[in-house]
Amino acid sequence: MKRAQETAAPIANTYSIPIINDDRLREIGNNRFDHTPWPSDDLPEYGSFWGSERPFSTITPERPEGESMMHFRVRIGLFIEEMLEKHREQTVVAVCHGGVIELAFDHMFNVGPWRRCEVWSKNTGITHFEYVEHPLRETWRLYFQSRVEHLVDVRLHTDGRGPESPRSDK
Length: 170
Fold this sequence. Notes:
By secondary structure, this protein is of the alpha+beta class. The protein is built from 3 helices and 4 strands.
């Protein structure tokens, strides 16, 4: 998704790491039930219900081959499990929309299809999970959710070029 890619660019530049686009991290309703993405210029309209109300029904009723909340959860779970397998001793930064973070919670904390709460994330908020291999504890730790302290001193350029860091001379 374009906004997530724009957010990822300064992170990648700062740490000299490549951006790897992964269609599994697209927001709910932007992929078909087989996990292939709809073209960005032809995204379907959402239904008049939220996916957790009808987790096994497509959330894009005009397109019956659209994903359901459970398809979305599987898509996010597959991404997480692949990252664990390939990058077990590394840090993985995933820049995504809030629905992806919410379904990551569902996967990691074993939430069933009918949820009782929502996980809200602020734009550019940072969530930090850690996978821990420990025989006597849960395997996931949540250190923080939706932190935005990094935005406190960020100012926007008046010429529309995006954020800038504060100058020490002001």
